[in-house]
Design a protein that fits this description.
single chain, 29% helix, 4-stranded antiparallel beta sheet, 5 helices, 9 strands, 5-stranded mixed beta sheet, alpha+beta
Amino acid sequence: MKSVGFIFFIITILSSCSLWERKQFEYTYQQINENEILVDFTKINPGSWDTLLLIPPYTTSDQIRVGYLDSEYLEQIALADWIIAAAYLENGNMTAYSSCSRSPTDLDQVLEDQDSVLTKKFPRSKAVFRFIKGEDGTYKLKQ
Protein backbone atom coordinates (compact mmCIF):
# COMPACT_ATOMS: atom_id res chain seq x y z
CA MET A 1 0.00 0.00 0.00
CA LYS A 2 2.89 2.35 0.77
CA SER A 3 4.39 1.75 -2.67
CA VAL A 4 1.07 2.56 -4.38
CA GLY A 5 0.87 5.84 -2.47
CA PHE A 6 4.48 6.65 -3.35
CA ILE A 7 3.89 5.91 -7.04
CA PHE A 8 0.76 8.10 -7.02
CA PHE A 9 2.78 10.88 -5.36
CA ILE A 10 5.54 10.65 -8.00
CA ILE A 11 3.01 10.63 -10.86
CA THR A 12 1.28 13.68 -9.39
CA ILE A 13 4.57 15.56 -9.09
CA LEU A 14 5.66 14.67 -12.62
CA SER A 15 2.31 15.55 -14.17
CA SER A 16 2.23 18.90 -12.36
CA CYS A 17 5.59 19.70 -13.92
CA SER A 18 3.70 20.21 -17.19
CA LEU A 19 2.35 23.48 -15.73
CA TRP A 20 5.88 24.74 -15.26
CA GLU A 21 6.41 24.36 -18.99
CA ARG A 22 3.42 26.58 -19.76
CA LYS A 23 4.43 30.09 -20.64
CA GLN A 24 2.25 33.04 -19.74
CA PHE A 25 1.94 35.73 -22.39
CA GLU A 26 0.96 39.23 -21.35
CA TYR A 27 -2.40 40.28 -22.76
CA THR A 28 -2.03 43.29 -25.03
CA TYR A 29 -4.06 45.11 -27.65
CA GLN A 30 -3.26 47.62 -30.36
CA GLN A 31 -5.00 50.98 -30.56
CA ILE A 32 -5.58 51.39 -34.32
CA ASN A 33 -7.10 54.85 -33.91
CA GLU A 34 -9.18 56.61 -31.26
CA ASN A 35 -12.23 54.50 -32.17
CA GLU A 36 -10.75 51.08 -32.96
CA ILE A 37 -8.80 48.47 -31.01
CA LEU A 38 -7.26 45.27 -32.36
CA VAL A 39 -6.70 42.19 -30.18
CA ASP A 40 -4.37 39.90 -32.15
CA PHE A 41 -3.56 36.70 -30.28
CA THR A 42 -1.09 35.70 -33.01
CA LYS A 43 1.00 38.69 -31.93
CA ILE A 44 0.40 38.17 -28.22
CA ASN A 45 1.83 34.65 -28.60
CA PRO A 46 3.85 34.43 -31.82
CA GLY A 47 5.01 30.91 -30.86
CA SER A 48 3.72 27.56 -32.00
CA TRP A 49 0.00 26.94 -31.45
CA ASP A 50 -2.93 26.06 -33.67
CA THR A 51 -6.03 26.82 -31.56
CA LEU A 52 -7.08 29.57 -29.17
CA LEU A 53 -9.43 28.55 -26.36
CA LEU A 54 -11.27 31.43 -24.66
CA ILE A 55 -12.56 30.70 -21.16
CA PRO A 56 -15.03 33.14 -19.58
CA PRO A 57 -15.29 33.76 -15.83
CA TYR A 58 -16.75 31.04 -13.62
CA THR A 59 -16.04 28.23 -16.07
CA THR A 60 -15.28 24.95 -14.29
CA SER A 61 -12.40 22.64 -15.08
CA ASP A 62 -14.91 20.02 -16.29
CA GLN A 63 -16.08 22.49 -18.93
CA ILE A 64 -12.53 23.44 -20.00
CA ARG A 65 -11.25 19.90 -20.79
CA VAL A 66 -7.61 20.44 -21.81
CA GLY A 67 -6.05 17.97 -19.39
CA TYR A 68 -6.78 17.68 -15.70
CA LEU A 69 -4.05 19.93 -14.27
CA ASP A 70 -4.22 22.50 -17.07
CA SER A 71 -8.01 22.68 -16.72
CA GLU A 72 -7.74 23.10 -12.94
CA TYR A 73 -5.17 25.87 -13.41
CA LEU A 74 -7.27 27.70 -16.03
CA GLU A 75 -10.33 27.41 -13.78
CA GLN A 76 -8.44 29.32 -11.08
CA ILE A 77 -7.61 32.11 -13.56
CA ALA A 78 -11.24 32.27 -14.71
CA LEU A 79 -12.54 32.74 -11.15
CA ALA A 80 -12.14 36.51 -11.37
CA ASP A 81 -15.07 38.29 -12.99
CA TRP A 82 -12.78 40.76 -14.78
CA ILE A 83 -10.56 38.08 -16.40
CA ILE A 84 -11.08 35.87 -19.42
CA ALA A 85 -8.48 33.12 -19.71
CA ALA A 86 -6.99 32.35 -23.10
CA ALA A 87 -5.26 29.01 -23.63
CA TYR A 88 -3.02 28.40 -26.61
CA LEU A 89 -3.35 24.81 -27.80
CA GLU A 90 -1.09 22.74 -30.04
CA ASN A 91 -2.71 19.48 -31.16
CA GLY A 92 -5.21 19.76 -28.30
CA ASN A 93 -2.59 20.28 -25.57
CA MET A 94 -2.11 23.59 -23.77
CA THR A 95 1.28 25.16 -24.45
CA ALA A 96 0.71 28.65 -23.04
CA TYR A 97 -1.94 30.98 -21.67
CA SER A 98 -2.89 34.62 -21.13
CA SER A 99 -5.06 36.33 -18.54
CA CYS A 100 -7.15 38.78 -20.57
CA SER A 101 -8.56 41.84 -18.86
CA ARG A 102 -12.13 42.68 -19.84
CA SER A 103 -11.26 46.36 -20.15
CA PRO A 104 -11.33 48.33 -22.44
CA THR A 105 -12.66 45.59 -24.74
CA ASP A 106 -14.78 42.77 -23.46
CA LEU A 107 -13.89 39.46 -25.09
CA ASP A 108 -17.18 38.12 -23.71
CA GLN A 109 -18.68 39.60 -26.87
CA VAL A 110 -16.78 36.96 -28.85
CA LEU A 111 -18.45 34.28 -26.73
CA GLU A 112 -22.02 35.62 -26.81
CA ASP A 113 -23.33 33.49 -29.67
CA GLN A 114 -22.87 30.24 -27.77
CA ASP A 115 -25.58 27.88 -26.65
CA SER A 116 -24.62 25.90 -23.56
CA VAL A 117 -20.87 25.45 -23.95
CA LEU A 118 -18.96 28.14 -22.08
CA THR A 119 -15.58 27.86 -23.78
CA LYS A 120 -14.99 28.63 -27.44
CA LYS A 121 -12.19 27.54 -29.76
CA PHE A 122 -10.79 29.56 -32.64
CA PRO A 123 -8.26 28.41 -35.22
CA ARG A 124 -5.10 30.50 -35.16
CA SER A 125 -6.13 32.19 -38.42
CA LYS A 126 -9.32 33.50 -36.74
CA ALA A 127 -7.75 34.62 -33.44
CA VAL A 128 -7.79 38.32 -34.33
CA PHE A 129 -10.62 40.55 -33.08
CA ARG A 130 -11.47 44.18 -33.85
CA PHE A 131 -13.48 46.38 -31.52
CA ILE A 132 -15.10 49.68 -32.49
CA LYS A 133 -15.96 52.40 -29.98
CA GLY A 134 -19.67 53.09 -29.89
CA GLU A 135 -21.46 56.35 -29.19
CA ASP A 136 -21.75 55.33 -25.53
CA GLY A 137 -17.95 55.11 -25.28
CA THR A 138 -17.76 51.32 -24.94
CA TYR A 139 -16.07 49.05 -27.45
CA LYS A 140 -18.17 46.61 -29.45
CA LEU A 141 -16.91 43.63 -31.41
CA LYS A 142 -16.77 44.42 -35.12
CA GLN A 143 -18.64 41.64 -36.92
